[in-house]
Design goal:
- This protein folds into two domains: 106 residues, Phosphorylase Kinase, domain 1 (2-Layer Sandwich), CATH 3.30.200; 198 residues, Alpha-Beta Complex (Aminoglycoside 3'-phosphotransferase, Chain: A, domain 2).
- The chain contains nine helices and ten strands.
- Helix 4 packs antiparallel against helix 6, helix 4 crosses helix 7 and helix 8 crosses helix 9.
- The relative contact order is 0.13.
Amino acid sequence: MEKSVEVLFTQEVLNQFLTRFELESRVKKLGDFENYVFEVYRNGQPFVLRITHSSHRSLGEIEAELDWMNYLNENGVNCPKVFLSSNGHLIEKFEALDESCFFACLYTKAEGFPVKTDSEYFSNELFHAWGKVTGHMHAVTKHYQAKKGLKMRPFWHEEELIDVSAYFPDEPEMIKNTSELMKELWALPQSTDNFGLIHTDIHSGNFFYDGKEVHVFDFDDCSYHWFTSDIAIPLYYSIFYGLRNASEQEKTEFARNFLTYFIEGYKEFNTLPESWEKHLPLFLKLRDITLYSVFQKKIAPEDRDERLNQIIIEIQERIIQKETIVKTK
């Protein structure tokens, strides 16, 4: 979390939201990178409370996110249900000291357990279930229409992290290669069969697994994008978290196996986007760019350790060389 937001997030802010959602005082922090996320309790039952600063998301963006989540949930997709506050609101607002504000939402806690890349559960069965929930989400979304009056979620090109000149203005080759990639993406066809509202960030840190099915959460980055991006991101982060230091051959072999089982699961619910294999490298490259921007935005140079600096260098080199984190062919 940016330091400017940390100073505003006081105990009073948290207490206000606990009261408004009729929650117990005990909390367990789950994350604080882009949002403050807590496991909270009501009558002993666990829920998830997410608190977002207005510098990260607007009220309209969050309303659109929750509308889509509820639609997915109502149509059988394994994702959280959103609950009303005691005031009857899906989103509660609290003014911060600098006249900005915080927004809070309450969700069901996902079923299952987290799966790390070194877990015995990080297996072909998981990859199949991962693809299955992704395909289900895309199939259901083809029929989704936002409620009248709601602000739409951003389109892929409106992502602030793609405005790379704001995050690394002194790196002209990086900026040039980003611009060229954007032109390639703009040239891709768009239809209801390959483009729509997607999660955009279905990595292993954003779902639980119950041994049979994957339950997705954290829809904070959802946007209108190509479906193929939701296939690329699971592969990207499987390599990033689990095989970053592996040989190129090991990465390629993993990618082929991963995609075999992921795609099998995906096709149980949805037809694959046309030319998805051909376009996959474009979305792997795009994630390198947005992740590089995230690190520049969120973590000051003096707060980076040696490992993170090495990761940033690796991403930078791939962007300059126009390479992907893994070769899929």
